[in-house]
Amino acid sequence: MTAAIIILALLALLILRVPVAFAMGALGVFLLWYFPLPLNAVPQRLYGTMDSFELLAVPMFLLMSNVLLKGNVGRDLFAAVQSWVGHWPGGLGVATILSCGMFSAVSGSSVATAATIGTVAIPEMTKRGYDRPFVLGLLAAGGTLGILIPPSIPLIIYGIITEVSIPTLFLAGIGPGLFLASVFIIYSIIYARVKGTQQNLEKASWQVRRKASLMALPTVGLAVAIIGSIYLGIATPSESAGVGFVLAIIITFAMGRMNWQKLKDATYDSMKTTTMIFLIIAGAKVFSYAITLYQIPQDISELLTSNITDPTMFMLAVGIVLLIIGFFLESLSMLLIMVPVLFPALQMVGIDPIWFGIFFVVLIETALITPPVGLNLFIIQAVGKARLEEVVKGAWPFALMMLSTAILLWFWQGLALTIAYGFK
């Protein structure tokens, strides 16, 4: 009964449009006061949340992605990939997904990926006769690769919450990320062949390909340096993010794409996003501490495991709950609210926490392109100056592909775990 009242109270605050951070934080403070517990535990928890070396990776990756965004490196990536595959049927769609995947390997952010590649790909594809809803949906879905292909900010936060290895989570995200990108590419090719309204590009000369590839080479090298340093054990995610930020500044200034005003704007945008993320994390920490004192995660875990002993049925129930919540909460809030509640039940039903993290992120990806609060829908709507209905119309096939991938992950867990544990 207590759990139901607390959940309803949180939902009521969210329905009243109280910001997620303040809704969770205020409710957590009230629960601690009602327990009763000295409220000096609140600042202690807040300080403990922010005093985390692993969390340094979040602002560093955001700074790096915003510097690259202001430096227009997405244009170089798209031009390079387009020169190699643009003449294929649906070649610009293929180039868009490949560019999203490459930029994801640098930024770790779905918003930055969608915005960066979208500013280049949307006008280019619509000019070539691609159906506008398809273009918008493709970019909205391609941007979601930013939180699955490592490095990934949600996977970093999941690793901090659950205290599992972040590099192992990154490795586990490679297989599903590449698989999902491949599915998007195949769909783009089939769609282009069936629709047949687009103009295919002429095959680029080797000189054009060489020039375009050389322009994109510094960004690709940056991605290799970041990911390689983590997987080889040379640097932690936080250290590699810091080095990546410095390299991004050097690259963009050296290419003449950056000035002090752009750097200031990139820093300001990163600060706003970082503040939002950290406020949500702080509010969630207070809330999760409070509900732990009320034994709510334990009660929910016991309720689930006592009534659902079969792991398949357990994951089906979890998946349905996450999909429903995804209609109303943005991805980070889903992560911070649901993981502390669900995680204690995982070991009881024998579910690997690394695999669950990838499964969870795939469902978060789906939430990013489902209305009414799919963040990538609004990003692409703004970038493409489109109606929301157009973006939703183009995005729903990709949402079905993501759901199918989540189902496949259950029956083929090796898609995530083979790379993760094979490199340990």
Which terms would index this structure?
424 residues; mainly alpha; single chain
Structure, described:
- With 424 residues, the chain is mostly helical.
- It has one domain.
- It is 79% helix and 0% strand.
- Helix 9 crosses helix 17 and helix 16 packs antiparallel against helix 17.
- The protein is globular and about 70 Å long.
Distance between the termini: 44 Å
Query: What's the overall average pLDDT, rounded?
Result: 86
Measured as a percent range, the helix fraction is over 70%
Molecular shape: globular
Structural class call reads: mainly alpha
Total number of helical segments?
20
Radius of gyration: 22 Å
Summarize the structure.
This protein has 20 helices and no strands. By secondary structure, it is mainly α.
SSE topology:
Elements: H1 2-15, H2 20-34, H3 41-50, H4 57-70, H5 73-85, H6 91-107, H7 110-127, H8 132-143, H9 153-162, H10 166-195, H11 206-231, H12 237-254, H13 260-293, H14 296-307, H15 311-326, H16 331-348, H17 353-368, H18 375-384, H19 388-411, H20 414-422
